[in-house]
Amino acid sequence: MSKPGKFSFGVFVFVTLFLHIPLAILVISSFNSSKSMRWEGFSLKWYHELFYNSGPLWHSFWNSIIVAISSSVVATVIGTLGAIGLCWYSFRMKKAIQTLTFFPVILPEIIIGVSILIFFNKIGLSLSLFTIFLAHVTFNIPFVLMTVMARLEEFDFSIVEAAYDLGATEIDMLLRVILPISMPGIIAGLLLAITLSLEDFVITFFVAGPGSSTLPLHIFSMIRFGVSPTINALSVVIIVGTALLALSSKNLYSSLLKR
Amino acid sequence: MRKNYGPIYVGPVAFWLCAFLSVPLLITLSYSFLAKGLYGGVEPHFSLAAYRSLFNTAVLKVLLNTIIIAVLSTALMVGLALPTAYYIARSSQKNLLLMLIIIPFWTNFLIRIYAWITILGSNGLLNSFLMGVGLTDGPIQFLYNRGAIILVIVYTTIPFAIFPLYSTIEKFDFSLIEAAMDLGASKTKALWKIMIPNIRSGITTAVLFTFIPTFGNFAVPKLVGGTSSWMLGNLIERELNITRNWPLASSMSVVLTFVTMLAVLFFMRSQNKKEL
Amino acid sequence: MRQTGAAFHQQRVDSVKSSQVTVENVSKSFGDFSALKNASLTIAKGGFYSMLGPSGCGKTTLLRIIGGFETPTEGDVCFDGVSILPLPPNKRQVNTIFQNYALFPHLTVFENVAFPLRLKKIAAAEIKRAVQENLELVRMETESKKYPSQLSGGQKQRVAIARALINQPRVLLLDEPLSALDAKLRQHMLLELDAIHDKVGITFIYVTHDQAEALSVSDQVCVLNKGEIQQIGSPAEIYESPANEFVARFIGETNYIHGTIAAVTDNEHALFDSPDYGNFTIYLDKKVQQGSKVALTVRPEKIRVAPEKPDNLPPDVNVLHGVVEDMIYTGFQTKYFIRVSKDKEPLIVFRQHVQYFMDEKPISWKDKVCLWWNTKDSFMVEVSK
Ligand SMILES: Nc1ncnc2c1ncn2[C@@H]1O[C@H](COP(=O)(O)OP(=O)(O)OP(=O)(O)O)[C@@H](O)[C@H]1O
Ligand SMILES: [Mg+2]
Question: CATH for B49-275?
Answer without folding.
Answer: 1.10.3720.10
